[in-house]
Amino acid sequence: MDTDYEQVKALYQHAEWYGGKFDEHRDSQEIMLHKVTADPQSIIVDEENGEILGTISLVEDGRVAWFYRFVTKDNNLGAAEALYKAASGVLKQRGHPEVLIYSDPTREDLNSRYQALGMEKGGDYECFYGAL
User: Fold this and answer.
1) Which of 15, 34, 54, 132 has the smallest number of CB atoms closer than 10 Å to its CB?
2) Secondary structure letter of residue 20 according to DSSP
C-alpha cells in the first residue's frame, strides 16, 4: 500500500489531470486505507507494469453515487475509459442507475473527457468545504 499510495498521491497533486486539489484531510494514506479496508471496491486503479496510470474513488450513500478523484496521468483517455467501465460496473452491481461527477466548468479538456465517456453535462455549481 505504501508504494501505491505514493503513486496515487503524486497523481492527486496534478490538479490539471482531474480539476481537484490534494487535501490531507480527504486524501491521507490512513483515510484511504480505511476506505479500501471497509470496501475493497471503493478505490479502483488502472495500472500498467507496476505504474498507476489513474484512479477513481466511489462515494455512495444509498441514494446517489459519485465518482471522486477521477484522475488519469496526462489525461490519458484510455485509462479514463478503463476506470469508467470498471467503476460503472461496480455501481451497477450495487443497484445504482446513474453516477455523478463534479468538474470545473471552465476546463474544456475535462468536460470533453466526461462527454466522451457518454456522460451528460449538468448545471454549473461551486463546491464549498470547511473544517469541522
Assistant:
1) 132
2) -
Residue 56 has φ and ψ, to the nearest 5°, of -145, 135
Q: Are 54 and 13 in contact (CB under 8 A)?
A: no
Per-residue pLDDT of 28-57, as tens digits, reads: 999 999 999 999 999 999 999 999 999 999
pTM of the model: 0.91
Q: How many CB atoms lie within 10 A of CB 16?
A: 12
For residue 74, give the amino acid letter.
Answer: D
Q: What are phi and psi of 52, to 5 degrees?
A: -80, 115
As a 3-state breakdown, the chain gives helix, strand, coil percent values, each rounded to 5, of 45, 20, 35
Q: How far is CA 91 from the centre of its chain?
A: 13
- Orientation of helix 77-93 relative to helix 108-116, angle to 10°: 50
Q: 113: which residues sit within 8 A by CB, 6+ positions away?
A: 75, 77, 80
